[in-house]
Amino acid sequence: MPVVAVCSACATPPRSVAGSRPTVTALADAVAAGVSGQEPASTGFAEDVAIAAERDVSTVVPVRDGNGAFAPG
Length: 73
Prior knowledge:
By secondary structure, this protein is mostly helical. It has a domain at 1-12 and 21-55. The protein has helices at 24-33, 35-42, 46-52, and strands spanning 63-64, 70-71. A two-stranded antiparallel sheet has the order 1-2. Helix 2 (35-42) runs antiparallel to helix 3. The radius of gyration is 15 Å and the shape is extended.
């Protein structure tokens, strides 16, 4: 069964059937329902929360430089 990490403040974590992945909608709903999603949404950043919950949409990953800052790469 896949493991899904969801913050303890989320109202309802996404459900998954054995051998399958939670749906993108369930994941986005769980992120939006949590405190970490509600706070930025309440200050006008709901679209950023939705983007943060997107899955399998990029072929690149963030890279940090030697000082811990994000670096082009």
